[in-house]
Design goal:
Blueprint lengths: L6 E12 L2 E12 L2 E6 L6 H8 L7 E6 L2 E2 L4 H5 L2 E4 L11 H9 L8 H7 L15 H12 L6 E5 L7 H16 L3 E6 L2 H7 L2 E6 L2 E6 L1 H7 L5 E6 L5 H6 L3 E7 L2 E6 L2 H14 L4 E7 L3 H9 L12
Parallel strand pairs: 3-8, 3-9, 6-7, 7-8
Antiparallel strand pairs: 1-2, 1-4, 4-5, 9-10, 11-13, 11-14, 12-13
Helix pairs in contact: 3-4, 5-6
Length: 315
């Protein structure tokens, strides 16, 4: 963490159990002002439980949580005054309008943000007086974000903020979240979307079965891993395993249908050798892709298992 930044969140040794299940196992991390820190993990990894303990929605079994230097376990009400949150399963009454909802929530605080300013900031002017039931998914998420800002927080907690949104709404929300960094806020977000974590977060903590198994910048985590680039190649006639394995630089090879995945220590040498071989064999190249190491490779290396498949497990 850069020394010039002020620490906004400090979590140490956090644990949470539900009966015999230990959902959070000794988790520790910090979040600084002007930083976006992401908890990245598949569903069931413990992300939401960590956020709920931090927000005072659940009491941890052990460990400490400090927000702006305030003990959030001992003084939850005081700590909450510094926090704005957008939770995953939020909802509002069908007929309430964004203006009414913001005014109602603002009434809970001594020095709330102006409602008109929040409506403009989060792009809700055209729908400010429309019922909640008429809002699109992206507009609802923007309203939830606006509600998280009614108390002028210094820490913003976002639980899967773009889940279920279409690509355009996701891009809009990503722009808003990035803007929070520029405003000097501390942002703690959970996500199971690796591309979202890579694009938005300054640092991430990779969660697996309730533990943070690695933490750092997305690029730093990838560079420290032992993962190597892979070249995906498909030719008019499929290569044999002997041909694929004999190419310069190749250290591993596997067939996926008519495509060969070649793990290589030297991408340039492998591609040069590949093109020479295909030309020599008069075997036209149909497709060639280079896959650089990714956060998914880091997860596989750390846990020994692939990132869960399906729409809720993959980006």
């Amino acid at each position: 963490m850069p020394e010039s930044r002020t620490e906004s969140v400090r979590v140490r040794g956090l644990t949470k159990r539900y009966g015999p299940v230990e959902a959070v196992r000794g988790v520790s991390f910090d979040v600084a002002e002007g930083e976006i820190f992401g908890l990245l993990g598949p569903n069931g990894a413990g992300k939401t439980s960590i956020l709920e303990c931090l927000l005072g929605l659940r009491r941890p079994d052990s460990g400490s949580v400090a927000i702006g230097g305030i003990d959030a376990v001992a003084l939850p009400r005081l700590a909450k005054e510094r926090v704005g949150a957008q939770v995953q399963l939020a909802s509002l009454q069908d007929r309430i309008t964004p203006r009414q909802a913001l005014g109602f929530f603002a009434s809970f605080y001594r020095e709330p943000a102006p409602v008109a300013g929040l409506i403009a900031r989060f792009g809700l002017s055209a729908k400010a007086d429309s019922p909640f039931e008429s809002l699109s998914g992206g507009q609802r998420q923007r309203l939830y974000l606006a509600l998280a800002f009614v108390n002028n927080p210094r820490l913003v907690v976002l639980d899967e903020p773009t889940a279920g949104l279409d690509p355009q709404a996701r891009r809009e929300l990503h722009r808003m979240i990035s803007g929070m960094r520029a405003d000097g806020l501390a942002v703690l977000m959970s996500t199971h979307d690796m591309e979202e974590a890579r694009a938005l977060c300054d640092r991430i903590g990779i969660l697996n079965e309730g533990r943070i198994v690695a933490a750092g910048s997305p690029s730093g985590l990838v560079s420290r891993s032992g993962a190597i680039p892979r070249v995906a190649v498909r030719a008019a006639r499929a290569m044999t395993r002997a041909q694929a394995s004999a190419l310069a630089g190749v250290v591993s090879s596997s067939a996926e249908g008519d495509t060969w995945m070649l793990g290589t220590a030297d991408v340039g040498a492998t591609i040069t050798a590949l093109m020479r071989q295909l030309e020599r064999d008069e075997n036209p190249l149909l497709d060639l892709q280079i896959h650089r190491p990714s956060l998914e490779d880091v997860f596989i290396e750390l846990t020994g298992r692939p990132w869960p498949a399906g729409p809720e497990g993959r980006p």
